[in-house]
Write a structure and sequence with these properties.
The chain is 23% helix and 18% strand. With 536 residues, it is of the alpha/beta class. The protein has helices at 19-25, 82-97, 113-121, 157-165, 197-201, 264-268, 296-314, 329-342, 369-374, 380-388, 430-433, 473-483, 495-505, and strands at residues 3-6, 9-12, 54-57, 64-65, 76-78, 139-140, 145-147, 171-174, 181-184, 207-209, 222-227, 236-242, 245-251, 283-285, 291-293, 319-323, 346-349, 378-379, 394-398, 419-424, 436-439, 448-451, 456-460, 522-523. α2 (82-97) crosses α3 and α8 (329-342) packs parallel to α12. The radius of gyration is 27 Å and the shape is elongated. The chain has 13 helices and 24 strands. The two termini are 21 Å apart. The structure holds iron/sulfur cluster (SF4) (2 copies) and FE2/S2 (inorganic) cluster. One iron/sulfur cluster (SF4) binds at residues 228, 230-231, 233-235, 258, 262-263, 265-266, 360-361.
Length: 536
């Protein structure tokens, strides 16, 4: 570990790294040591083209670019001296020579590195009189991204992303010298499944997503850390929230899970949070079979009365449970408790499968399938076999994944049930036949933990509050346990207390409760470093 001195502070950094990489590795880059940079990105190859990262290194005759200068034992670096400041001013003047005066109408304003450094190192007046370069505006590069060529500073991050990360190579620098521009190859749209990441890494407002542009000024947004629930990879995200509404997902760096990327499908999945498809009212099927809207209290009473009658007439063995792989560990732990307290052993989880790739996207289209399995929920098919053989009369279902073609493919088999209690977030065919239907919260609306495919436990927190009454699955199940007067069920729902109890009851989850987890999560105690999908 070489020791170097940066602005009179001695630090130990990893060997074999460049100065920017080493400072990033130890968490100091832009977090104590400010070295502005445009072309360098921690997950892309080094380009060395923007020249903004120049620093003074003792013993070297000229300034050096920090992104491409290897650290050496005893290196003495200055980032705040006059020569460095003058270099930054020079680079900024050059970059601004042709840059349009678009800030007031640019969607990147407020989170634009060119704007930030122009304030710090830019000149107040231009020294050139020539007109600025006129290039293409509002160019659609593909279905997701719009390009403003005039704003581009040719850092080439987007080009390297498509070559090095997705391997699709749609983008290139065309022409030479001051005629250089970024373009897609003729007839090759930018349409890979990760295309929207180029807008995140573009340091200026040249690349913007069609989905987010002009929806809201970014300074009105709060960034709430969370986890994408689109598949079992559990990519870390920031939810951009204003006025109790989610406007976008952005990747949140976690080198053990998603580095600095998310897939386009996961990014767009925020639309499901406030969609018109959300369930908003508890329903109970009245005597003639017509669903009637009611209160949570009445719906839970009705569910409890039905279950009680079944236990009294046929025994708890005819009741089964299907857990949701979208629910949190705390919800699922509570479900397990309820089923155990009822005295039923028939329980499982249905997990919808879909396409996967080698970068992030996993086949299991749920955020907590691994958590459900770790908490003892086996394959839902065993429950369905029992149902087919006539051994189940009452079913409590969380979510509607069981309707997928790989499991039921429809509701027919469920119509023979004496009692069907459904906890769900969105409308599905289940509501046509459910005896009791209870609307529950989605991940963006609650506290809890999720276990990803590599066994990493990560926490979520509410970013928005539903505009209607919706409870955590765990709260519905706790209230149901109370209505059934079951022993061993808590008196009220307290997600933090449940998280602690879960960690105490399951050694794998020890130290992985809500209060103990850091923002980047922690692997289950049993997770091997070489488990599929594990990267650290
Ligand atoms: S479009 Fe953005 S990311 Fe691509 S080269 Fe230009 S400034 Fe860099
Ligand atoms: S890979 Fe999965 S978890 Fe990651 S962003 Fe895509 S859908 Fe979400
Ligand atoms: S960040 Fe070093 S030259 Fe661009």
């Amino acid at each position: 570990m070489p020791r170097i001195t940066v602005d009179d502070v001695e630090i130990e950094v990893p060997a074999g790294r460049t100065l920017l990489q080493a400072l990033d590795d130890v968490g100091l880059l832009m977090n104590g040591v400010e070295i502005p940079h445009y072309c360098w990105h921690p997950k892309l190859s080094i380009d060395g083209s923007c020249r903004l990262c120049q620093v003074e290194i003792q013993g070297m005759p000229k300034l050096q670019i920090a992104c491409n200068t290897p650290v050496q034992e005893g290196m003495v670096v200055r980032t705040k001296c006059d020569s460095v400041r003058r270099a930054r001013e020079g680079v900024m003047e050059l970059l601004l020579v042709n840059h349009p005066l678009d800030c007031p109408i640019c969607d990147q304003a407020g989170e634009c590195k060119l704007q930030d450094y122009a304030y710090e190192y830019g000149m107040t007046e231009s020294r050139t009189r020539e007109p600025r370069r006129a290039l293409k505006k509002n160019l659609e590069l593909g279905p997701t991204i719009v390009f403003d060529q005039e704003r581009c500073i040719l850092c080439r991050r987007c080009v390297r992303f498509t070559r090095e990360i997705t391997g699709t190579g749609e983008l290139a620098v065309l022409n030479r010298g001051d005629h250089s521009v970024i373009e897609t190859y003729p007839g090759v749209p930018l349409d890979n499944p990760y295309s929207m990441n180029v807008a995140d890494i573009c340091p200026v407002g040249a690349l913007t997503t069609k989905d987010f542009r002009f929806k809201i000024r970014v300074w009105f947004l709060d960034d709430v850390p969370g986890v994408c629930t689109g598949c079992s990879n559990g990519c870390n995200i920031h939810l951009g929230v204003a006025n109790n509404k989610v406007y976008r997902y952005l990747p949140r760096r976690n080198d053990a899970v998603n580095e600095t990327w998310i897939c386009d499908a996961g990014r767009m999945s925020y639309h499901e949070i406030g969609s018109a498809d959300r369930l908003k009212l508890p329903l109970v099927r009245a005597s003639l079979g017509v669903p009637e809207a009611t209160s949570f209290a009445a719906a839970i009473e009705s569910a409890a009365a039905r279950l009680k009658k079944l236990v009294e007439t046929k025994g708890a063995g005819v009741i089964a449970g299907l857990a949701s792989p979208h629910a949190t560990n705390e919800d699922l732990f509570t479900f397990r408790r309820l089923l155990d307290a009822l005295g039923t052993e028939t329980a499982g989880v249905a997990v919808v499968q879909g396409p996967a790739d080698a970068l992030l996207v996993k086949a299991e289209k749920a955020a907590n399938a691994a958590g459900a399995r770790a908490l003892g929920f086996g394959d839902a098919r065993a429950v369905l076999d029992r149902l087919r053989s006539g051994g189940v009369d009452g079913l409590i279902v969380m979510g509607h994944d069981v309707l997928d073609a790989a499991y039921l493919g429809g509701v027919d088999l469920l119509t023979r049930l004496d009692t069907l209690i459904v906890l769900d977030t969105h409308h599905s065919a289940l509501e046509r036949i459910a005896h009791v239907l209870l609307p529950v919260r989605v991940a963006a609306e609650k506290h809890g933990t999720l276990t990803n495919c590599a066994g990493r436990v990560q926490k979520i927190q509410p970013a928005v509050e539903p505009a209607w009454e919706a409870l955590d699955d765990g709260e519905v199940l706790t209230r149901l346990g109370q209505a059934l007067a079951l022993k061993n069920m808590p008196a009220r729902w307290d997600v933090r207390a449940v998280s602690r109890e879960l960690a105490a009851a399951h050694p794998e989850f020890a130290g992985r409760d809500l209060a103990s987890l850091a923002d980047d999560g922690a692997p289950l105690a049993s997770t091997r470093a070489d488990a599929p999908g594990a990267r650290a």
